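Summary for the steering committee. The consortium agreed at its last meeting that each partner would contribute one worked example illustrating the joint modelling workflow. Our contribution is presented below. We chose a case with several input lines so that the handling of multiple components could be demonstrated. No manual editing was applied between input and output; the record is shown as generated.
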Amino acid sequence: MPISGIVLTCLAAKVDDVALRLAAFDGVEVHGVMPDGQIVAVVEADTVQGEVDIVSQLHDVEDVITVRLAYHNFEDV
Amino acid sequence: MGLTRRDFLKASAAAAAFAATGAAVLKPKLVEAADSGIKWGKAPCRFCGTGCGVLVGVKDGRIVATKGDPAAPVNRGLNCIKGYFLSKILYGKDRLTKPLIRKGDKMVEASWEEAMTLIAGKFKEAIEKHGPDSVAIYGSGQWTVFEGYAASKLFKGGIGTNNVEPNARLCMASAVTGFMTTFASDEPMGVYDDLDIGDTYFLWGANMAECHPVLFSRMIDNRLKNPNVKIIDFGTRRTRTSQMADQYIKFAPQTDLALLNAIAHVIVKEKLYDENFIKKHVVFKKGKTNIGNGLEDKFKFADDPKPMTFDEYKDFLKEYTPEYASRLSGVPAEKIVEMARLYADKKRKVNSLWTMGFNQHTRGTWVNNLVYNVHLLTGKICRPGENPMSLTGQPSACGTAREVGTFTHRLPADMVVTNPEHRAIAAKIWGIDVKKIPEKPTYNAIEMFRALDRGDIKVVWTQVTNPFQSLPNLNRFRKGARKGDGRFVIVSDMYPTKSTEVADVILPSASWVEKEGVFGNAERRTQQWYKMVEPPGEARNDLTQTIDLARRLGHGNLFPYKYVEKEIWEEYRQFTVGGKDLAPYEAYTKARGLRWPVVNGKETLYRYAEGYDPYVKAGEGIKFYKNKKDDGRAVIWARPYEPAAEAPDKSYPFWLCTGRVLEHWHTGTMTGRVPELKRAYPAAVCEMHPDDAKKLGIKNLQKVKISSRRGTIILPVDLNGRGKAEKGNIFVAFFDETKLINELCIDAYCPISGEPDYKKCAVKVEKA
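What follows is the complete predicted structure of the assembly.
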């Protein structure tokens, strides 16, 4: 199963709300919420396709401004 | 409960993300465990011209992981969504692994020896019968520096033809001629740091959110920290970028020329210009007008610049009142005044950013000149946080196509074949008789494929590009390639494409970290990487392929190298000393890229600026020293508004604009191989305004027939897509090889740059 580490940004005032919205997604674990509006999350899915589907949806989550990829491991794919 | 490898990997994923946010790494021991058995190497990303740093993880000869490179100043540990597919592009199921030779309608596997013997034979035959200008090489801004250099040296210095062009002619040529005519040196004065420290950003027809997401994120991060930051999106189509901008200002296609002149008009009328800067650093010029659109074969144009005074320039601007520009563009006159004042606001650090909206334009050079005019009038240039910046689309459009100079008229490092001194310098470095390099340029990219269609070019070799999908007026060129009568097309690529379909020989190529390379990005940053994995089957580096041909044509003496990449670099570097100044090869093996000029081991942030640029003397402040003929000053050009080559009319009432989407890169040769991306954005659609659709009785996702004077295509209409067409406009992305939208595009080009206009032609839309 591929695993990726991502960083999302939103307005600092919205960061807790956004983190809650992200946590509701299957395959998304929120690992860190920074006071400046950055959120660290780990995405897991059965396939890379699944990961990309999740990340594409995260782009559209209310108040999310950017979604970027820090780490991607797919050694057993 | 023991920890599994999965736990280690999760920790590693989180740690990399934390590191990118600037937070401390948690659980470093787990990260270490996750990394066991993985060997990491650095490389620039394979996709766009941003030049993000990537760490590539290899285990048992295969790429198993990638990271945004935390040490890379461009992207600081984060990649865009295309980062998910960086390695997968190497592992598509239909990778080409053996040379293929056409036998009738079939492509048959062959040995390299057989394929190269055939190719060399065709080259020799054409040269003997029709002269050296009957053979050509067409490469790309995805060529490594070495590959581009070897191609230029072989064709210009060995075979003796200037038939060398890159696909960058289709994407960056107007930026180059804009820089050359205004500053007499290619490539920007500013750097990406301006995205972090400026406060006002004008985007002109650039969908940065989708096409340069990492740079867009830097600008957005800046705005999150600084509420004073303003982003203005001037566009002909509402995009993801428009949604994020503070203001989206729609304008009618082609009227950017009038808008920029009107902005200059207001700046002059309200005396908002920087008089001191103008006196010291600027001259005024005008060139020819009504310059044509390059639609006829063998079109030729030479500008005839004439000096003018500031007062004469002011007279030229008189006509461009906000009201006049408003009538043409649809932008309210008061909005134009507001934007001019924003550009000139002395308290603001102003940047302009653009890509294909300006460059793919029948007046692409002019519109580049016009945006520089505004920065030169206001003196907002060559200073930290305020610069005009042309963004690039390919990873080495700058490093290879522009700096190595793989264009028909160019030699390395801003030199040109028409200049006898430049030819002499090149001949000396190449160790050849100066007479070998022809003094006349031959064909720009469009003219090259017109020449193939006519039969003036017989043999063409394309490398790392897909012209038979990406050229405008595509039907003509696809048919031309298969006309026979001695025509012979060689295509080197990693996958089957629309270009391999018309090839006589297909050569399988190594890609990205399957070879050693150097790319140069849009902020003058040169980045090196080593080979990390083997290419599949018998695939070979394009560099090896070119040198193989050289040997077979008797030009092996031009390539006497042992460590080919390093020795080519050091040879090429001689061209750059005292100007673009590239560093010794070793410097790049360690650094996360260096921005030229690199003098005494130090990179340059701001060109032409004292304290930054080593060529600007103490006390000079700013010096456009490359423009020697105008005494080190930049040129403000009087360039008028002229209409597009083809505008909508009764029969063809819509503007067609083409472009890219986030998930796919260019013609989709690589990204189309990745099933995930195919699914995210599987096929081209026609973006249309709901009011236009209603008038035509077309419902969302219904199929429509789109026709221009050159071709027809059937596509579903998308009224709720990510991009929103303005009334009277439609937009279609060009990645989909099953729907060749470029068949509809017109092959009109900017007479100065030779770059075609993919953003404007007239089409009609009917229910299919």
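The mean pLDDT of chain B is 94. The CA atoms of residues 528 and 590 of chain B lie 8 Å apart.
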